[in-house]
Structure formats: structure tokens, C-alpha cells
Design brief:
The complex is a heterodimer of chains A (498) and B (635). With 498 residues, chain A is mainly α. Chain A contains 22 helices and two strands. The termini of chain B are far apart. Classes of the chains: A mainly alpha (498), B mainly alpha (635).
Chain lengths: 498, 635
Amino acid sequence: MNFPILSSITFLPLIGAFFVFLSKSELNQVNKGAIYVSLFTSFANFFLVLFLWYSFDNTSSNFQFVEEAVWISGFIKFKFGIDGISILFILLTAFIIPICVISCVNSIKTRLKEFLIAILVLETFMIGVFCSLDLVIFYLFFEAGLIPMFLIIGIWGGPRRVYSAFKFFLFTLLGSVLMLIAIISIYWITGTTDVTEIYKIKIPAEFQNLLWLAFFSSFAVKMPMWPVHTWLPDAHVEAPTAGSVILAAILLKMAGYGFLRFSVGMFPLASEYFTPLVFTLSVIAIIYTSLVALMQDDMKKLIAYSSVAHMGYVTLGIFTFNKQGIEGGIIQMFSHGLISAALFLCVGVLYDRAHSRLINNYGGVVNILPKYSFILMIFVLGTLGLPGTSGFVGEFLVLVGAFKVNFLVAILASIGVVLAAAYILWLYKRVIFGKLENNQIKEMKDLNKSEMGVLVSIGILVIFFGFYPEPLFNTVNVSVDNLINNYNMEINKLSVLK
Amino acid sequence: MEYAVIFLPLLGTIIGYLSKYFGDLASQLLTTLTVCIAAILSIVIFYNGLVHDNYGNYIIFEWIRSGNFQINWAINIDPLSSIMLVVVTFVSALVHIYSIGYMSHDPFKPRFMSYLSLFTFAMLVLVVSDNFIQLFFGWEGVGLSSYLLIGFWYKKDSANKAAIKAFLVNRIGDFGLAIGIFLIFLYFGTLNYNEVFKQASNFSQNKINFLGLEANLITLICLFLFIGAMGKSAQFFLHTWLPDAMEGPTPVSALIHAATMVTAGVFLVVRCSPIFEYSQFALNVVTIIGMTTAFFAATVAIVQNDIKKIIAYSTCSQLGYMFFAAGVGAYNVAMFHLFTHAFFKALLFLGSGSVIHSMNDEQDIRNMGDLWKKMPFTWIAMIVGTLALTGFPFLSGFYSKDAIIEYAYLSQSNIGYIATAVGIITALLTAIYSWRLIFKTFHGRFNNKNISKSKIKESSLSITIPLGILILGSIFSGFLFKDLFIGKTNQEFWASSILILKNFDHSLIPLWILYITPVIVVSSIPLSYYLFLKKPKYLDEIILKNKKIYKFLLNKWYFDEFYDAIFVKQIQKLGSFFWKFGDQKTIDRYGPDGISQLIKTISYKVSKFQTGYLFDYAFVMLIGFSLLLTFLIIK
């Protein structure tokens, strides 16, 4: 415990944001200084995180790089620490943020400086979520993330941005209030909010169900699970590209992480008890939203609905409580983080040029943008889970895991794979192929260097982890084993008692 | 060497994609060269295996490791995979050469070659896999390349639709395959072929509860695997994509939709023979589906007018033959037919491509005729292909198809006997539709108004050379390889890849079974000549009398219409319903919108109390006071 690396990666973006804030700028003028500072900060942070990943010991199931400081004595500790699961999400966050910075330089025309500040602040909050080992700290970061996102949608969004921003805010707040109450009760029950302590003390069985539901209400909205998913398509449609990217790639994953760290970790008995509920909602999400995605005429909405379906696999995988299911769920989140981010960037590329998200306004794009069409194909294939892309590994493992637990659930969930191919290929066909009719498209330019760099780097990762996901498995392996062992121990204890 | 065979086509793919650095011609030649080398190497591998028993399993690196779910990337060379290597790379090399000529007018030649090589790579990965997941990778990989190649002419809406249809129907098959794989993993705890096959006999009596049904585990696994095979090999119910796939360029049809990819389903069943052998029920299903397809596709082929669609249905039908051969337990015969079929069907497709190319992309046989003097070489190629396909004595198809009928009879089961009968009837139908194609295309009167007959000429060398090689293959591949595949020593050869529990006693065969098919086939030539060339009026009369049947066949038994009404339309309706009614009118209306509306209404009503007039407040106070008083008095 020498160098507080977790605090550094968490608060470095905040410091960057402060410098961006100091930089001078007029309302609608592009400020080079602000751009360079944010680029520098986000990249520096990414490399720090890479270093963190490198020095992470993936043979130990303990929390590593733990930092502790008293905040309010006897009540809240400031406690950071990571295990194999959290580090993947930190990695994802630190990778996505520089991409957002690059992309928003292209597409944000007004108040760029403020936008950059919002993104950097958001990075601090998100990394904070994945590092926190204290419930109160976690809650603070988890909720604080709402604010910059709310602003991003509300200020830089499309025509219906205010409606969407409020819908987003109300939905997520509703769940969070219950989570706050649960956190307070946990404090009263156990006398601490330190997660590792709670793991040891173990919450009595009689409280678990209610507390689990309170946490669930927050995570289910964030995930989002059916039927509390309707905020997501609206938020995506109105959000600017970079906002959509962060939303899809990282914010949704905070819920999946929450399920693993808190729901399964702290309330194993309740998790087992509520498994049928989660399975039902997941399967509905997969089939229902895939069907809805099929009928969308707005590209962003289609991708948003497909996100809900893909997150259905994640919840399904986590609640199988076996190795394949949970690891599949984690890989699925990681891969969806890459693929959905790239898909939203791709939509952004078209939107920046033709100012439309409606599928019908496009067609024949391949004639004008061949490079773009090729790269988009990679992400389309990732979405439909083609073997050789990272999308396959997660999805397939989740289904393997689910099959061990329940045939019916697994088979129904597998139907989603067929539907995914239907909606995403149909989208690709209508946008990319066909006759070139819209004159606006004819004047479009193919990807510029920065767009190309961003999309290619994501594409390479999607394919790399499709063929060689070993680094991901190595990272999470021991932590997942640990999670499953603890879970099984609790379940067995209960059955012995009975 | 094994690595080179697999990865050379991948190299070709990349070269194709980087064409702007090489130039069109160079990248075409380079991709072709890589595949040609791969073809030569795979023949060497086949030879080494055959003569020196040089088989082996090479692990490249670990792919997925999650608990006991452990999968490697591997190259597994055994008799079965070495044969497939030869078939795939050999046909692929010829198609590459052919494409240089065939696609000479296309602006996107390198992209085309790149896709072809990508397909070859995926198919090779499929056949050399040593586990089910790598197989699944290749399985979906060939599906992808098929999708890309069918939709190659992306400006045509019909091509795009056909491409998506092919991918989706295959996905439904893959869905079945995946469930089969899940079941295997769940009970066997591994997905490595050898380890699974070793355990198969232990599970032969296991019953499991599957969605409330008591079922035999092995049967269940086989049926799900077979759904996958049905999708890929275009068998009855999942066949609808194959005829539509003819929207792709003809070389693609020859390589993917005739010689290699569509046989992957047969390959899967043969590969899994150690599992299938323990479930008679599943084998029966395979036989029934196989013969239904063989018969159904042949009936449809008789009335089609698109030259490629006829051959496509013919492929469907021949795949049916392979399946019922596998279904009666004669996996080696199925492989033999797969092998010979690759030659003559590729020949037929490439030959028809040569015709289409010379006729400026005309595909309707009603608009052809009398081409044989103009394109003598193509004519010979098509004649040889047709003779081989119909099973004319001593050509390749004769050995394999007769063997199938023979083994079906020898299986000595009722289903086997029915399959024999269906096989013979289908052989007759096959002969009729094949000769119809020949006579309508190459003989009779020239019927095309768009292109003058004098302009038609024989295709270029890069087209005719592959045809020439395939002619040799179609003639000799049956005769030369029959001993290896189905001869006396075949069991030694197949021992390490195919399990056959049944004993076929060749002395039981009645002589007439051996003679009936060749007789039918030979006599069908003058019959077709009479019907289609000499007295077409007679044919018209038959059609007029049986209009309903004709329509039924012409519309391919109305499968497309049926599926459209039952699935496509309903799914779209359901999607719209969930979106408009579920999301917007239910969840949002009573959820966020409803709640915010409610709060608004309440606060609006409450705010009405604040009128600002003193008498209003005094009135409210008075009411409150009197209510309080009443309450106190009553209490």
C-alpha cells in the first residue's frame, strides 16, 4: 500500500475537469486548450489503468490496492479496493472515455468546454462506483453519476431532450431512494457500511429479501430490465453521441456490477429466492425487446432496445450462480460495452453528416462510405453474436450456464439469438445496401482519421477478444470462483439448518 | 503443412481486402494462388494419411476456458477431415480460377475473391475442428460468408433479401445445433469430439426430463444436432433459403451452395456417427427427412424455369440422398456421394454459369435453346455433369447413388425399404429434370430476343479449364475411389472417424435392385427427348390437365407463402404490438407519464383552493370547524 493508485485513477479526471474549467472559452467557440487537457487526462488515466491491470494479481481473491480513510468517524469510511471483476469495468471505463472525448470534438458544436467537463466528471464518478468498498461511498458515486448524464442529455440532446432527461432521472431516482433506505437499514443491522465487513458478518436471512428488493429496484432500472426499460430508448435517442456511448457502454454496466458485488455478494439467500423472478424478467426482456427492436424505424432506438435484450443475457447469466453463467455475464457486459459503444458511434457518424437517425432516410450508403460500411459490419456481427467476435463468447457461456439450471429459460433465451440476427441484419440492409436515393447521402464523406482510428481500435478489440478472450477470463477467474464459493456456502448452510 | 492449408485461404482473404495496394489482377491471382497451394497441400495430407497413416491433432491455442468449459483452437486430421479438406480446397481452387473469368466485368473483383477465400477458411476450420465449439465457429462463419456472397450484388433488393433469409433460416438451424451442444456439455462435461464419443455408449439408456417430456438423452442430442444439419444442408422445412440463394454469383452457387457448405450438415451427422448410432429413433428421423427432401426437391425441380434454381433444387434433392444414406447407417456411402456430388454438381453449376455468362445474364431456360453448336465445350461439360448426376453407368454418380439405394435396402427395416423406393423414384425424377434442362438449354429452337445468336460464343479459358478438370472428376471419381469409400477394406480406412454398428450383408441384395436404377436412368433419356423436344405439345396437355398440381409444384409447395403468413407477418405484428401497446400505451402511460400526469392533476386541483379571496378561506374554515365539532359531539 504505497501509492494510492485507485484514488489517482478516480480523481485524476476530476482534476483534469478543473483545468478544463479554468481554460478560457467563448460560448460557441472551440477551445483547443480544453480539448488537449481532456485528451491528455483521459489518455493518462487509461494508461494508469492499464498499469493497474498489469500489476493486478489475478491469483488472489482478496480485494487489492485497498485504501482506507475515516470520513465520519464510527460511521463512514472512505474505502477503495478492487478485485478481478471490478478491474474489468474500470478498464472498460478508462477505454471508453478517451473515445468519447475524441468523438465529441467532432460532433458537439456548442458549449464544448462544458461538455468535456461533464464527461470527465462522469468518469470520476463511474470509476468511483467500481472502486468503492463502502456502501455509502458507492451510493454517492452511483447517484452522482446521474447529474452529469442528466445535463448531457438535457443540454446537448435532441428536440425532446427535456422529456427524456426527466424520464431518465425519475426512473433511476425512484430505485435509488429505496436503495438508500436499504443502505441505512444495513447500517442498523450490522453496524457498518464496509462491504468486506458485511461479507464477513453476513446479513441475517430474515432481512435479506426486503433489502435485496430495495437494491434490485435500483439496479433493475439501471440495467435496465423489463418493464422498467422504457427510459433507455428515449434517453438514447435524445442524447448526443458521446452521451449514448457512455450510457450504453458503462452506466448500464454499473447495475450488472451492482448485482454481482452487492445483491449476490451480500444477500445470497435472497438472490437464490428471487432467481425465478430475475429469470422471468430476463427472458421477457430478451424476447420482448428483440421483437420491439425489429420494428423500430429509428436507428438509435433499435440499438437501445437491442441493449436491453443483451442486458437480459447478463442478468440471466449472473443468476445462474455457476461459473459459465457468471463469467459469461461479465464477458457479455464487457463486450457489449465495446460493441454498443461502437454502434452508437457509427450512428453518430451518419447523424453528423445527414442529421437523421431514421432508417428510411438512408440506403445505399455502401456506395459512398465503403470503409464505414465494412467497419459497421464487424459490430453488426458482434451484436448478433457471431463466433469470432467477443459477443459470441459471453452470450454462449451465459446460455451454457443457463442450460445447467433450467432448460426452458435457456431455450427461450436462445431464441433471442435468432431475433438479434434478424433485427440487426435488417437494419444493416436498409441502411447500407439497396439503392442510393437520398441526395444528402451522395455528398457524404467517408470516415475521417479520428473516426477511423476510434472505430478500428474498437473493432480490433472485438475480434481479438472473440478469438482470444483468455486475458479476460484470467482476470475474473479467481474472483468469480470466490463469489460462487461464498454463495454456495451460504446456501448449503441454510439447507443444513432446514 | 496442416497449418498452411488452413491459414493460406485466410491470407488470401486479407490480400483480397488489401487489393488497392496490389491492383485488381494481382490480388485476384494471389488469392487464387493461395487456395491452389492449399489444394495441393491437402491432397498431400490426404495421401500421407491414406498411405502412411499420418493423422494427428494439432492444438493451436486455447480459446475459451471457464471452469470445465474448455475449448481449443485445433486442427484435427483424420480420414474424414482429410477427405473434406480435399473436396473443399480442390473445388474452391477451381472456383477461384473460374471466377477470374466469370467476374471479369465486375467492378468489385477483389472483394469477391476475398469473400470466397474467407468462406474457404471458415469451411476448413469447420471440418478440421476437434470440438463442437470450433465446429460452431466454422458453421456460423460459412453462414456469414454465404450471407456476404449471396448479397454480393447489393444493389439488387432481391439479393439482399435472399442473403438475410439464408442467414436467418440458418440461424434457426444453428439454434438447434447450439441446444444440442448445450445438452452434450451438460451431460458429458466436455465438448471435445473424442471424449464425447468415448462416453456416448454409456449414455445410451439415459432418460432425461426435457420440458416435461421424458426423453432419451442421446435421441434428444441427435435431433437437435440434426436441426442444425437441416438448416445448413437445406433439408425439408428449412430448405427455403437455398433456391433464393441463387441470387448470388454463379461461382458462389457452385462452391457454397452445391459442393461444400451445404454438405456441412451431412458432414456433421457423419462426424457424430458415434452418437447417432445409439439412437435408432434419431436415425429414422434423419432417413425420413432425407427421403422427403430428395423427393420433394426433385418434384419441384421438374417445373422450374430458372436454370440455377433447377440445379439448386437438384442439390437439395441429392443432399436428401446423403441424409437417408446416413440415416440407414451407411455413413461411408453418404460421404462417398458427398464426394462425387461435389464434382458433378460443381460442374453443372459452373457449366450453367458459362451459359449465363455468354447469354448476358439470362437465366430462364425458356429463353435459351440450340446453344450446343455455339458452346460445344460447355455443352459437353453439362452433358457429362448430367450423366454423372443421374447415375448413368460407370460415371461417378452411378457408383455412389446406386450404393445408397443398395444400402437402404440392406438396412432391412421398413423405413429402409421405403427409402429404397423413394430413392428409385427420385432417380427417375432426377433424370427427367436434368435432361429437361439440357434439351431446353442446348437444343430445340433459339428463343432469345435480347441477344442475337451469332454473338454467343464459348467462354474463355479461365472458365473452361476448371470445367475440364471437373469433367474428369465427374467421370472418374466414382470408379477410382469406390474401393476406398465403400469397398471391402473401407472399415479399416474409416475406423478412426466413423462408427457403424450395423452389419450390412451384401449377399442379401436381389439382383433387380442393382439393375433397376441404371435401366430407369438410361431409358429416361429418350423419354425426356420425346417429351421436351419432339412432342412438347403432349407435355402441354399434361400440364393443362393437371393445372393444380403444376401450380403447386411451380410454387414450391407454397412453403414461402406459408412461412411468410405464419412466422414473418406474425412476428412483425407481435413486435409492433409490444412496442406500441406494451411500451407506449401500458408501461409509459401508467408508469412515468401516468405518474407525472397524476401529480400534475393533483397539484392543479390543490392549487385551485388558493383563490386568494378571503371569503373562500373563511368558508373552508367554517366547514372545517363544523366538521370538527360534529366529530367531537358524536364521539
